[in-house]
Amino acid sequence: MSKALEGVRVVDMTHVQAGPVCTQMMAWLGAEVIKIELPGRGDITRSQLRDIPDVDSLYFTMLNSNKRSLTLDIKQPRGQEILWELLRRSDVLVENFGPGALDRQGITWERLQERAPRVVYASIKGFGPGDYEHAKAYETIAQAMGGSMSTTGFEDGPPTSTGAQIGDSGSAIHLLAAILAALLQRQQTGCGQRVQVAMQHSVLNLARVKIRDHQRLERGPLAEYPNREFGDAVPRSGNASGGGQPGWALRCHPGGPNDFIYVIIQPHVWEPLLRQIERTDLLGVAAYQTPEARLSHLDEVFGVIEEWTMRHTKWQVFESFNAIDVPCGPVLDTKDLVADSSLRQSGMIVEVEHPERGRYLTVGCPLRLSDSPVEIGRSPLLGEHSAQVLEEVLGLSGSEVELMRTQGVI
Ligand code: CAO
Questions:
Q1: Distance between CA atoms of 257 and 239, rounded to whole angstroms?
Q2: Where are the domains of the chain?
Q3: Overall pTM surpassing 0.90 (yes/no)
Q4: Strands 349-354 and 358-363
Q5: Distance 101 CA to ligand 1 centre (A)
Q6: Shortest CA distance to 22 belongs to which of 196, 166, 172, 192?
């Protein structure tokens, strides 16, 4: 079966997490992704957080599957020539180096428009135009500067980062959407375009509801927040749902660190919920009857439910509450997740075979297209496809490739 991005060739000059996640998704959707890496070293993550000596780390293997690896020193003249030849035969260039890194090598948007005008040139940087544009950024810096850290955690604790990589992987998904839109527009214009995503912007987009609440705060306290006092910025609100229906993480039996279930109280499930937890004595009690009445003492309301959840496991509660249509979800730890049979069945936790590492687990593709099935492959070894790409795509001879190898160009 064909793939959605079949025929799209991507020159992938990404590294670490933000860029590679984007191009990995493109590869999963069928694009031909050629990852260009520094000869001898490659993407720095190949050797970061290694669990097996001298073998590509899981950091690398889980972010670079289904790609081909070409080592190429773009700071050598021959390396640059090869890069331009590749770009002229490609559709997309993706990079996430520090600000100005490719410009310093003469690979600029202006030159790209002259030499390869159909190429979509996509970048992730920490920041957009303005005071911070020359600064480098990592995940947690973007969380700090995009509104996530100041609003995550508990009121009496410090600003907290989230486990989900919203700065890196979040930016990657934003970039993917922008690249696909640019490729669609190219069908009309015939031209590529400059596509840029800033990590700070992506996090702010994902923290949009906190700017909603900032403006509401100007008109009075945020009644659905667990906080009692408010200053002039949105506070950390612990495990409050952040939406129009209240929610909280409730303790379950036997009381381990992740024996919790997150429960949301929709107005129409309140009465069935009281029956399920055997608290019919509260039916008709004014302080518990309407959403408005419950809002002023949500901690007590959730406390009533928690008295019951603490006597049951999170899975028992999940089953019991789902039976009466109460939205809820047990807190799953990483051990739960890798063992989860539904995640295995749906291909979200997959095993891949790697020539040096053996079998390893990776997280599959959350995008499902009925006419473009995703097959999760392995990541390439450093320079594994150098000769193949140079011969196949650029038509170079074996001896030319060998010469470049001895000169350290590839
Ligand atoms: N051949 C020759 N040189 C190469 C090369 C190749 N194939 N690939 C990369 N390089 C060089 C670049 O030209 C650059 O050289 P200069 O420093 O001489 O210009 C260098 O390698 C990479 O520079 P960098 O600034 O990108 O790398 P860094 O490790 O100092 O910074 C990071 C890393 C992530 C902070 C920075 O790249 C960045 O801010 N990127 C944008 C934001 C981003 O994506 N961050 C998320 C990373 S995931 O957490």
A1: 15
A2: 9-205+341-406, 246-326
A3: yes
A4: antiparallel
A5: 7
A6: 172
pLDDT of residue 243: 86
CATH of 9-205+341-406, one of 3.30.280.10, 3.40.50.150, 3.40.50.10540, 3.90.1170.50: 3.40.50.10540
194: β partners: 121
Calculate how far, in angstroms, residue 96's C-alpha sits from the geometric centre of ligand 1: 7
Q: Is 168 an annotated catalytic residue?
A: yes
Pocket-testing residue among 11, 23, 136, 161, ligand 1, by greatest number of atoms within 8 A of Cβ: 136
Q: How far is the CA of 102 from the centre of ligand 1 (A)?
A: 9
CA distance 12 to 90: 10
pLDDT score, position 1: 81
Query: Which residue has a Cα nearest atom 4 of ligand 1?
Result: 38
Band (pLDDT 50/70/90 cuts) for residue 242 is: confident
Cα separation, 97 vs 406, whole angstroms: 27
Q: What is the pLDDT of residues 112-150, one digit of tens each?
A: 999 999 999 999 999 999 999 999 999 999 999 999 999
Catalytic entry in 91, 168, 232, 259:
168
Q: Which residues line ligand 1 (CB under 6 A)?
A: 16-19, 36-38, 72-75, 96-98, 101, 104-105, 124-126, 136-139, 168, 199
Residue 358 tokens, joined: 């053996």
DSSP code of 267? G
Mean pLDDT of the chain, nearest integer: 97
Give the whole-angstrom CA distance, residue 66 versus residue 74: 23
Q: Which CATH number fits domain 246-326: 3.60.120.10, 3.40.640.10, 3.40.1190.20, 3.30.1540.10?
A: 3.30.1540.10
